[in-house]
Amino acid sequence: MPTPIGMAAGFDKDCNVLRSLLNLGFGFVTGGTITLASRPGNPKPRVIRLPTEKALINSMGFPGRGLEPAIKRLQRSQRYKKRIFVSIAGTIEDEIFDCFHRVQSLAAGIELNISSPNTVGLRIFHETGRLRGLIEGLAAEKTVPLFVKLPPWSRGDDDRREILKLAETAIDAGVDGLIIANTRPIESNRLKVGRGGLSGQPLFENTELMIADVQAMTHGKIGIIACGGISTSAQVWKLLASGASAVQLYTSFIYEGPGLPSRLNKGLAKLMDAAGIAAINEISGAPPNIK
Hints:
- This protein is α/β, with parallel strands linked by helices.
- It has helices at 18-23, 67-75, 93-103, 128-139, 160-173, 204-218, 233-242, 251-256, 260-275, and strands spanning 5-7, 28-34, 47-50, 55-58, 84-88, 109-113, 146-150, 177-180, 184-187, 195-200, 223-227, 246-249.
- It has one domain: Aldolase class I (TIM Barrel, Alpha-Beta Barrel), CATH 3.20.20.
- It starts with a strand and ends in a 16-residue tail after the last helix.
């Protein structure tokens, strides 16, 4: 990728504007999450802005037109194929396999989303046996890298051990990388369904801790894409130094505007110049101070 800064899944659910996003300075973009059939998503209201925190709570629930329209748009974007990831999901294995078989030839990588807190039925793949069977089946037929997007955890979270077990299972079953992590589940009576996922600035500190957890477990043997609360080039540096190969953002793009990816690229380049390094994989330690 020309830069390690990508657009996360959820922004362009039907793959309508992937090329335009790349033109803004993203190194890569993620279309979807795509499901086999069209879905209306959850009832509205389903998105809440928290401006003072630069955060969102959403309960979208995978609204989208389904696989076929997305394929047609991806086919028109093949000039940019090497910079396009596609996120897929389903509540049964057959749905996921159908999406996988049709999409993988049109993308540089596939993201398997098993972690949206807003979609009923995905938690069946939090059973390690079910997850292993799914990934082993996909890995046996993959022609591009396969990533799994995990749910979040925190150092004091009772689910931490279980989620890290999911990560270990996914790696053993044949994934090429992990995306760390999805939105944080949260209750809100302002949403029609009463619950959703928190994204944005409040998540960054925990994202950094999760990346360190996975890096300690994998020792750099797989790709790690960091996702959650990223809005500055110093934060990008910290996550790359912690073991991430790349980062994804979404909520900060909404608050900071379309110039954000370009600013992050320039800021990261300045930090690298100040540190006297020329390659992303040389990033380590704290970001240098720039006056």
